[in-house]
């Protein structure tokens, strides 16, 4: 067993669960103590070397903006004692370290440490040199318990760490600031998103929807928070593309309705996630990177142009030409095409009213001299949806254009109208 | 100018030309194919049919199709054997240029079709740079070829039904 201990102090202790959650990326065996996070790394040595894990943990701490003492040992209490006292030899640890052996997950002071010192036992090395039979008579029951725990330190039950269901990261300014440009907010958001994605990555999840909260000055009269909810069209696993998308939306919102008061900080809360099956990167394939770039691109385009403006299309089995296709974002969705004669590539919506005068077709803005009028393809049906009845013709013009026109009854019993519906452009 | 100098000059010009020779997508209606990483202008009646035919012949490639106002009938693409799963449609409205630049920058599409007004030199230059960088062939669709400020467009093709003719530039 090899255990890495990340030992935090002071106000950073409140962020221990976030750190523990991000550490799940290195090993499934993670334990959360009152002052430290423990990660068992021996079982994942095929994936990461010890040095590599420590390097990555340092990077992680930097992103999370945490300062921690890191120590590695063969058992959990020793790793904790190494980290707490900054000593890398078990025999050189002071007798106060016996508290960590007695209760590694909740801090206790070793009450009889003073007695040990008076008896000349200053370090754990001194303590282990004493024969076991002399321990009860010299140090009583607590001494014997400490001795047993010290000798069997490797046998500690690991409480299972279960990450909290809620993923929320808040980043604050050092002091509340009046926001004139979006740039400072962007810095806060960047940090918050990086942290959120570290936690999501450890859970093998992608971000599908989130909420950004602007925390205003506590004394603000206009309310303490401003909330923006963003639902991503495709789940994403990289902070970069989500940050670009979120900035675009938030910048627009802040331009329209600026913040009423100074800003204390920003928080990002995950509202919706999707499974991230390919979290382990394949060095020989760019598929996952392309998927990510694709999700980012769709997100940006839909954010700027509207939810219906960027799409893949699929055929729909309907006779009505304008209803013969649908929008999707699912690349695997294969529609069914009705067996009909060749349709034009361009369709006018709505169709353009035409008038036929001799060998001319006239609309309100253009005219075409036709050379051939071929057809007819009779389309009729879909009575359950209101019904339609059209006779389609292909019209060749002297300019080389090919039009798709139809006639349809204008009204019951009236003359049939002529409409330009598409172009074989 | 001596024959030796002339020979050397020719060799150097040849070397220079070889950098300009690009790989191309095959296209049955254009013997030399459509070169990668350039702007191609396609005008005249039958231009959309020609592009869809080109997409059908290169069905494994991803393409983005940017329209100012969407007027395409995607089910007709399937009738022409184009792979609809690989074509990403974008209705750009007034932000077509931004949408096209974003698509080019993503480097996800070897082919981008652009059907919206163009002609501003700066905009074309930007498209040209992005197309070069991403090795994308950007096909600009218009009714008439651009006559002025068209220098970033390397190849201009005129369509008349199924026929394609080169108006300006060279295909390789």
Rounded mean pLDDT of chain A is 86
H/E order of the elements of chain A? EHEEHEHHHHHEHEEHEHEEEEEEEE
Number of separate strands of chain A: 16
Topology-level CATH name of the largest domain in chain A: Alpha-Beta Plaits
Level-2 CATH architecture of chain B: 3-Layer(aba) Sandwich
Radius of gyration of chain B: 17 Å
| CATH homologous superfamily designation of chain B | P-loop containing nucleotide triphosphate hydrolases
Largest sheet of chain A: 6 strands, antiparallel, barrel
Detail the poorly predicted runs of chain A: none
Give the second-level CATH assignment, the architecture of the largest domain in chain A.
Answer: 2-Layer Sandwich
CATH topology value of chain B: Rossmann fold
Strand content of chain B: 25-35%
Output mean pLDDT of chain B. 87
What is the number of E strands of chain B?
A: 9
Shape of chain B: globular
Structural class by sheet pairing and helices of chain A: alpha+beta
Distance separating the two termini of chain A: 71 Å
CATH class of chain B equals Alpha Beta
Question: What does this protein look like?
Answer:
Chain A has three domains: 3-151, Alpha-Beta Plaits (2-Layer Sandwich), CATH 3.30.70; 168-305, DNA polymerase, Y-family, little finger domain (Dna Ligase, domain 1), CATH 3.30.1490.100; 346-423. Chain A contains ten helices and 16 strands. Chain A has helices at residues 16-23, 50-63, 76-85, 98-102, 113-118, 124-129, 135-151, 183-202, 239-256, 287-305, and strands at residues 3-7, 30-32, 36-40, 69-73, 168-177, 205-216, 225-236, 263-275, 310-315, 325-328, 346-357, 360-362, 367-381, 388-397, 402-409, 416-423. In chain A, the strands form four sheets. A six-stranded antiparallel β-barrel of chain A has the order 11-12-13-14-15-16. A four-stranded antiparallel sheet of chain A has the order 2-3-1-4, with helices on both faces. In chain A, a hairpin with an 8-residue loop joins strand 6 (205-216) and strand 7. The longest helix of chain A has 20 residues, at 183-202. The N and C termini of chain A lie far apart (71 Å). Chain B is 35% helix and 29% strand. In chain B, the strands form two sheets. Chain B has a seven-stranded mixed sheet with strand order 5-4-6-7-3-8-9, with helices on both faces. In chain B, strands 1-2 form a two-stranded antiparallel sheet. Chain B has one domain (22-168): Rossmann fold (3-Layer(aba) Sandwich). Chain B is an alpha/beta fold and 172 residues long. In chain B, helix 4 runs parallel beside helix 5 (121-134). Strand 9 (310-315) of chain A pairs antiparallel with strand 5 of chain B, so a sheet runs across the interface.
């Amino acid at each position: 067993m090899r255990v890495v201990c990340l030992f935090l102090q002071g106000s950073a202790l409140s962020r221990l669960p976030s750190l523990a959650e991000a550490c799940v990326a290195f090993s499934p065996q993670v334990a959360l103590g009152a002052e430290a996070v423990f990660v068992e790394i021996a079982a994942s040595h095929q994936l990461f070397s010890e040095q590599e894990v420590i390097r990555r943990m340092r990077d992680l701490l930097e992103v999370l903006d945490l300062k921690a003492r890191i120590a590695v040992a063969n058992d959990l209490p020793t790793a904790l004692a190494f980290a707490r006292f900054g000593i890398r030899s078990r025999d050189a640890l002071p007798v106060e370290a016996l508290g960590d052996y007695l209760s590694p997950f909740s801090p206790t002071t070793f009450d009889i440490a003073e007695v040990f010192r008076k008896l000349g036992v200053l370090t754990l090395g001194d303590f282990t040199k004493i024969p076991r039979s002399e321990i009860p008579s010299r140090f009583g029951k607590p001494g014997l318990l400490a001795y047993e725990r010290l000798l069997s330190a490797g046998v500690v039950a690991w409480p299972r760490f279960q990450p909290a269901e809620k993923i929320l990261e808040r980043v604050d300014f050092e002091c509340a600031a009046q926001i004139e440009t979006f740039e400072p907010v962007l810095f806060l958001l960047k940090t918050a998103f990086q942290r959120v994605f570290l936690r999501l990555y450890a859970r093998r999840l992608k971000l599908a929807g989130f909420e950004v909260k602007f925390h205003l000055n506590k004394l603000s009269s206009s309310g303490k928070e401003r909330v923006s909810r963003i639902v991503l069209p495709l789940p994403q696993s990289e902070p970069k593309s989500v940050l670009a998308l979120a900035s675009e939306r938030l910048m627009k919102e802040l331009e329209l309705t600026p913040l009423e008061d100074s800003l204390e900080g920003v928080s990002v809360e995950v509202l919706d996630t999707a499974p991230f099956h390919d979290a382990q990167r394949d060095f020989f394939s760019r598929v996952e990177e392309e998927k990510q770039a694709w999700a980012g691109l769709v997100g940006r385009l839909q954010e700027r142009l509207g939810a219906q403006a960027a799409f893949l299309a699929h055929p729909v089995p309907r006779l009505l030409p304008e209803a013969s296709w649908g929008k999707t974002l699912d690349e695997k969705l294969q529609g069914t095409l009705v067996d009909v004669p060749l349709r034009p590539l361009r369709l006018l919506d709505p169709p353009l009213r035409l008038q036929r005068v001799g060998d001319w077709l006239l609309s309100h803005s253009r005219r075409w001299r036709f050379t051939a009028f071929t057809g007819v393809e009779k389309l009729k049906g879909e009575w359950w949806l209101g019904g339609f009845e059209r006779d389609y013709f292909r019209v060749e013009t002297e300019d080389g254009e090919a039009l798709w026109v139809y006639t349809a009854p204008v009204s019951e019993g009236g003359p049939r109208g002529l409409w330009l519906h598409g172009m074989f452009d | 100018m001596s024959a030796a100098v002339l020979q050397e000059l020719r060799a150097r010009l040849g070397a220079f030309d070889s950098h300009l020779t690009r790989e191309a997508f095959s296209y049955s209606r254009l013997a030399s194919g459509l070169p990668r990483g350039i702007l191609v202008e396609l005008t005249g009646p039958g231009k959309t049919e020609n592009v869809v035919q080109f997409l059908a012949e290169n069905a494994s490639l991803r393409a983005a199709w940017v329209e100012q106002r969407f007027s395409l009938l995607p089910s007709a693409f399937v009738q022409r054997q184009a792979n609809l799963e690989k074509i990403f449609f974008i209705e750009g409205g007034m932000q077509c240029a931004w949408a096209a630049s974003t698509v080019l920058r993503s480097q996800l599409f070897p082919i981008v079709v652009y059907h919206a007004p163009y002609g501003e030199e700066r905009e074309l230059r930007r498209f040209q740079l992005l197309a070069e960088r991403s090795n994308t062939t950007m096909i600009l669709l218009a009714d008439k070829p651009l006559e002025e400020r068209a220098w970033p467009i390397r190849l201009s093709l005129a369509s008349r039904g199924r026929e394609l003719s080169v108006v300006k530039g060279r295909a390789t």
